[in-house]
Amino acid sequence: MHTKRLNNLGRIVIPKEILEIFQLHEGDLVDITHNDRQIIVEPHRQRYVCAVTGKVADEAIRIGEAWISKEGLRQIVKYMSDE
Questions:
Q1: How many other CB atoms are found less than 10 A from the CB of residue 79?
Q2: For the chain, how many structural domains are there in total?
Q3: For the residues of the chain, what is the DSSP string, one character each?
Q4: Integer Cα distance of 77 and 18 in angstroms
Q5: What is the pLDDT of residue 47?
Q6: Whole-structure pTM over 0.85, yes or no?
Q7: Distance (Å, rounded) from C-alpha 23 to C-alpha 26?
Q8: Are 48 and 54 in contact, with CB atoms under 8 Å apart?
Q9: Is residue 32 located within the same domain as residue 52?
């Protein structure tokens, strides 16, 4: 465990050892969330809203201006094969 002090702007320094474990470098993005008892800092993962399902997905392909998830693609293929 590492104990750090917040500075006057609410900043903390993440120890180098932890940065190396998660392969984080200067300029990388992190996601900061919380629950009732914890502040959670995680490496940023790009998330997409599927234009077919409307659900958030970690993986998607871009077709024109739309992002389509694997589930969305399956729905399109099923729809096209049913006709």
A1: 10
A2: 2
A3: -------TTS-----HHHHHHTT--TT--EEEEE-SS-EEEEE----EE-TTT--EES--EEETTEEE-HHHHHHHHHHHHH-
A4: 43
A5: 85
A6: no
A7: 10
A8: no
A9: no
Q: How far apart are alpha carbons 27 and 5 in whole angstroms?
A: 22
53 and 34 in a common domain:
no
Tell me the chain's radius of gyration from C-alpha atoms. Answer: 19
Chain segment 30-48, per-residue pLDDT in tens: 989 999 999 999 988 888 9
Structural domain of residue 10, as residue ranges? 1-44
Residues 18 and 37 in one domain: yes
Tokens coding 35? 């629950």
First to last CA, the chain: 59
pLDDT digits (tens, 9 = 90+) for 5-29: 999 999 999 999 999 998 999 999 9
